[in-house]
Every structure is written in structure tokens, then in C-alpha cells.
Amino acid sequence: AEQLKQLIRIGKVMAQKYQVVATNPPYMGGSMNKKLYSFVDRYYRDAKSDMYTAFIERANYLASRNAKITLVTPETWMFLESYNELRRKLLTNYNLISLCHLGTGAFDAGFGTVVFCYKKRIGAYNGIYVDLKGIKEKERIENWKIKIVCDKLFKNLPNNIIAYWCSENMAKVFNNKKIGECFELESGIVTGNNTLLLRFWYETSLKNTALYNVTNEFLNNPKYKWFKCNKGGGYRKWYGNYDYVVDIGNNAIDIKSNIDSSIYRLRNRKNYFLKGINWPLIGVDRFSAKYTPYDVINNKAANSIHFQSKIDKNLFAYLNSKVYNALLLMINPTVNYPLSNIASSPYVEVDFDFSDIVDECLEISKEDYDSFEYSSDFKRHFLCTKIGNWKIKELYNSWEEKMYMQYERLVNLEEKINKIYIHACGLENELDYKVDHNDIGIRVPKLKEDVVSFISYSIGCMLGRYSLDEEGLIYAGGECDYGRYKTFLPDEDNCIPITDEEYFSDDIVARFIEFVKIVYGADTLEENLDFIANVLGNKGNTSREVIRNYFLKDFYTDHLKVYQKRPIYWMFDSGKQNGFKALIYMHRYDADTVGRVRTDYLHKAQKYVETAMQSAQYTIDNATSASEKSKATKAVTKYTKQLAEMKIYDEAIAHVANQRIEIDLDDGVKVNYRKVQTATDGKFYEILADSKKIMVKEK
What we know:
This protein is 40% helix and 13% strand. By secondary structure, it is α+β, with helices and mostly antiparallel strands.
């Protein structure tokens, strides 16, 4: 009887209703274990995506008829599709009294948070909404953005999103047809294992990579393994970010044979290599749409709309307009842009043909993207379009002026698009047609970056990747046709030494000077070298010393940045004393490369340093000038450290050189970078620069 009384008391407490319910519930997302998820799925089905939303429903149960309920939660319930039913029930049964949108960073959280209060519904209700996103702590209350909004507004918005900042005019735009009703949207392919099946396009061999004029028939051609793939690429309008290739050769045999069929999704093959409009699944706080060229296939990170012939350029313009960005920000203010959000967004049709505007935007953006090596359609560096007596500074100034004109032209075109759509939607008092320069996808000229890109192109010519006689990629694996190089010959043995003094007649500085002399002529050589050295800004008393120090200290860092830690030029590096460095081209690597670097260059460099040290020692023993002795003493100290470094390096490089290790370009840079530094006994010898940044981690 006593136990029964205790159970009754507990039951009363559990069944009790409250006038006020306030809580800061746990935010768990996908971290619920199986047992907890099953419980939430069973009892809180409409709020099962997160533990905090289950607490919202629980709070509703605990509240009495006239109670007020307040919670501190993430902002996701306000917008995400997975909470559609939760929002519908909340707006049907309750009135939102107030809501304070804190944004990212409140309570030291790395996600957006919101504080809101609601009560049982009594009809339409004007609630108070405070937007504190971006407001710094302790700012005056006058800076807060406060709105009075009737909650019936949310019932007229798609999926009942809590877009409290939406005006009546903006809300009317949602009455238009949805994009999903006008166009067929499609997610990209899912490989099931991107590490195995995706590469940057510049990693693989040209002989089995389909880069140009691709059709569906190429999939049946055993010659091709890799195909250009769009993996989203973040924010960029109109054109670009086609960085990857995917292994779908021989009808995706590698995917089908290595991956569980429940994981990969190859989608509709009829839409492969069609022109279209795509956007990144994961972006930034701005939406951007890009053109899908006919030779690119989309990954799941790049959703798209395909077209059998011409793309709809009015749709393209609309997606890149300020109006569409504002509408999409209401549907989902997070950085994700899934198909469902795009499909449910309104499509505003206007009586204007955007074909010419879009064509020009595409042309400008494509020219910008293809001006640099990270594009597979890169043809020639913009400072090397003319051969003769030229001053680099004048060529650069001319190119810079052109680029700024292109930049301003693109701004004007995008502002024209904005004006037309803002006027069509009656949003003149709410949206400014002006384009923020941070929103323009193309880059403005940056002198140092552009000179560095010129130096990178010169290295490509030295190692045979490019030729001054032809445009585009000349060699990236397979058989090399040396007849394609006449004006400037590539290095014969695929090894260019980099030393802190001129020990080799054909070291990297000598070859670079030769390149500059051939491209721009002997008469302007010194002026051009001075210009390059001044831009680089490295230490040195002469332009040659400055350039040498750039190759020693900064070139490889810049190369890793441009090639996203997948270097195609590998640097053999003895260490911090700069005793020995040398560049090779990965695509020309063979089993004898490491041995050749060791015997033909490292050993010779050691002899040069030994000779230089003997000369410095002789100066110490015989010079009468104190300054000469001091300078020679410093040199001997340097040479001693370098020789000690090179001795240790020689022992390391010998272990892998003698084993004649082969590489497979299909494995990619990370795997091969480790492979060429690992002996057959499994021991790793760090003979290449920045190995820890590049290599695939050991399992």
C-alpha cells in the first residue's frame, strides 16, 4: 500500500501541468545513440531530427492551457525542411510572442542560436522579433533591429519558415510558380568513396583522362578512366571551380566492383555531360550559380539543372540576382543549398531576354578562370602571349588595365540584372541593386600573385608541362613528343637543382633567366629581372640573389597553395640548411629518378660545397683583411652545416634510390608522395619537402 501511494504521488507529479515552462535543452544533432534515437522516433516523430526539438514537444505537453513556454535552441527549427511538420503544428496551436535571433557565437556556440517564447493560440498575433545577428556585445539597444510581425505571415511562406524579416512585397513573390515546377533538378553522382575515386584533374595522366570534347560514348572507351567532375567548389558565379576528375571509365567499373551498391549513386546517365546550371550544395552565406560545360559531370556536392540544348539564360540570370539570394536566405539561411530548397523557391519570370548579358558574364568569368594553371583549359600565361623585346612591367600594366575593365563591366552587368528583377518584384525600397565587390566572382589583378603565377608557368616550361610553341597542356604522362618544344627546350633529365650558390650552370635561376631572355629578349633582360625581384621582395643584393632566395624559401609554399597540397612539381629537400634542393615533374617520374637526383646532383652538390669550403678556409689562413676573414669564417660555418645535412640526406635517399620505386599516377599525389619515400621494409625516409602536409595518413 505504501509503495502504491508513492507511485500515485510520482504519477501526479509526472502528469502535472505548469504555468511557465523554460529550458535550454541539449543539442545533439546526429550524435544520439541507437536506443535514444529509437525512443525519440517513437514518441516525438515530428521532432526526431534533434534532441532539442523533442524537448519543444515535451515542453508543449507540460504546459497548461494559458502557460508561456520559452526555450533557447539552435536556429535550425526555423528553416530546415526536416522540421516542416514541427513548424506547422507550432503555428497551428500556438502564438509566437517574441523571438530573439542571436546568430552565431552566442553562448560560445559555433552555430546560430535563438531564444523564443510562445503560448496557446488565440488567433493571429503580433509578436516582437529582435535580430541581434552581427550586433556586438554591449552595443546600445538603439542598434538592435526590432520588428513587430503577425505570425500569420509564416503560414503564407513556403514550409512555414520563420522568416520574420520578410516584408509583404517579398512574401508576394512566393506566390510565383516554384522552380521545381518549371525545371527538372538533379543531384550529382555519389561515388561511395571519394578518396579512392576522385582526384584533382592535374594529378592524373593525360593519356587516360578525358578533358576535352567529351561525350557519353567516351564512357565505353577503355582508353579513358578519369572524367572531369564538378564538386561544388564554393562561391563563384557564372563559370569555374571544375577542379576534379572522377573514375567512371569503362562504365564505372571501379565504382561497381569496389563499392557497396547501396552506397554509390550514378544517377541518370542520359544527363551526363549535358550543359546546365549548377550550384554548390555547401556554400557560404551567399548563393551562386555556375555554368556546367558539356564535358563535366556533377558530383553530389554540386546540384544542377540540365538542358538538352541551350540553357535557360533567364533562369541563370535570376539565380545570380540579389532578389533570388534574398528569397533563398529566407527559405534557408544556413550555408547549405539542397535540391528541396531550390525546388521550393519561387521562379520570377520577366519580360526581358537576358541572353546577351549572360553570355558576356560567362565570357568574362571563363576568361578569368582559364587565365591560371588551376584550369584544365589554361592555354598560356597572360604575360607570355608575345615573344620579342618586351618589358614585363608594361605588359602587366596593359593586362591589369584590361582586367579592371572586365571587372567593372561584370559589375555593371550584374547590377543591370538586379535592377530588372528588383523592379519586377516591387522591392525597390528593400533591396539595393548595387553589387558588393566581394560578391563578384572573378579576381582583381594582384601583382605579386600574378608574378608568382608567371614563375610557376616558367617552371612548367622548364619541366615540359607547357611549351612556348603550343597552347595548353603539352605533357602530363604517357609518351613525350620532344618535337613540340622548339623555342625553349625542357630539362632533359627531369631534375632542376636549387642551391643557395651557383654551383650548377643549369640550376633553376640560370634556367629562369634563360626563359625570361628568350620570351622578352636580351635587351630588356636586366630590367625585367629587376622588376620581378622588386615584386618578390626577398632578401638579396642583386635581382638574381632575390630570385634565388625566392626559389629556396617561397616557391614550394606557393606551389602547394595553388595546387591545393597536391603538388605536381616535387622538391627534393635536404633540410633547413639549404644544402640541396631539386625540382622534378611528377608526371615524368620513373624508377631511376631518385637515383639520378642522388648521383647526378646531390653528390655533385656535395663536391661543390666541399670545394667552396676549402676556398673559404684558404681565405681564413691567408687573408690579411679582418673583414675577409670574418666573411670566410661565416662561410665555413655554413658549409660545415650543409655538408653534415647532405651526408644525412644522402644516407636517407640511398635507401629508396636503390629500390627503383615505381609510381602510378592514378593513385594521386598523396599516395605516391609517401610511396617514393618508403623502403621495402616499410621504413619512411623524408626526402621530399613538406611531406607531413601532403601525404595520406597511415591507417
